[in-house]
């Protein structure tokens, strides 16, 4: 039986999924992740420019969380992870037994929801890029099928939600070793979300420039060392290969952190470079992440300066 799909977060990924799932015949509602003074539900036409040259569009209802007493279906979080503690509190009592799927970057982003005992929590590692071009117009480029795995829940629930969400234009797949996949993506994000904004360049820099790739390799090595300390074994060549694949396929696109800084918004760096550095500190080996931490601190400072100015 088809269940409603609630997408919390009206950003690039949220709007992309809303259009493609709506085109696939799903019952989709977008929900603004932030507190909003607009209580009404608007039906909004969203336009999606795909890299195959095809433009798709769909009219999707956009609402606010306070309008709902219960969200009975699949709940997808596409908001930035720094808002999770507040969002977890706002969702208490609204989700019942509905599964919560986090389509977010970073280490430990699920912890605020585990702390307040949400019964089913799943993580998705997004392997796609989207960028807002204009209000309710998004440019979308798929990279590979995005893995989803169990944080708290059951394999049967995982199979059901992947079956409901998986579509040709935005594929998903089951992943048993989800923390391994999370770490692989986190390492890539520690590279893209730090180096690209500091250089002021697009994601394609690493397949175009040898010096940028050399710096990326230093960050990869540091993050792999920290991951290894917590029992996550990853192959360095596989991680670098995936980073270059993303760089090539998202050539010309700006990483979300650079967009956030340009717009004076907070960034996700706390759950990326700085989270890796904090973990190294807790392990008693802070020197494992020296460059990773420094780049994260520079992004944090650049973000704060952009909001002051």
From TrEMBL:
EC number: 1.1.1.169
Single Gene Ontology MF annotation: NADP binding
Annotated function: Catalyzes the NADPH-dependent reduction of ketopantoate into pantoic acid.
Source superkingdom: Bacteria
Membership in a protein family: Belongs to the ketopantoate reductase family.
UniProt protein name: 2-dehydropantoate 2-reductase
Domain spans labelled Ketopantoate reductase N-terminal: 5-140
SUPFAM superfamilies named among the record's database cross-references: 6-phosphogluconate dehydrogenase C-terminal domain-like (SSF48179), NAD(P)-binding Rossmann-fold domains (SSF51735)
UniProt catalytic activity: (R)-pantoate + NADP(+) = 2-dehydropantoate + NADPH + H(+)
Pathway where it operates: Cofactor biosynthesis; (R)-pantothenate biosynthesis; (R)-pantoate from 3-methyl-2-oxobutanoate: step 2/2
One record GO biological process: pantothenate biosynthetic process
Keywords annotated in UniProt: NADP, Oxidoreductase, Pantothenate biosynthesis
The Ketopantoate reductase C-terminal domain, residue ranges: 178-290
